[in-house]
Amino acid sequence: HLAPGHVVASVRHSLCTRCGKCLDVCPYGARTLDAEHDRIVVDDILCQGCGSCASACPNSASFIRGFSDRQVLSVIDAALAVPGRFAPVPSTDVKETL
Question: What pTM, to 2 d.p., does this model score?
Fold first, then answer.
């Protein structure tokens, strides 16, 4: 489990097309469009590092910063350990074929 704190979202402005998907999905209202500079900005105080924006971004412009490599690998290991999470669970039923 990754606890929020110093973990916040960020934007790679060179990749951002300002489609607004990250604005729509942020449950904390931590993202706004800075019209003066024509870019999406993240309020580090409101952002909880949940990753909704990064998941919604079609260009990988949104990302979460602040996780250590160990934390990221721990979450990946936990996800891969759940049967059926990324692949169908093999059937345990033995069926006779004719």
Answer: 0.64
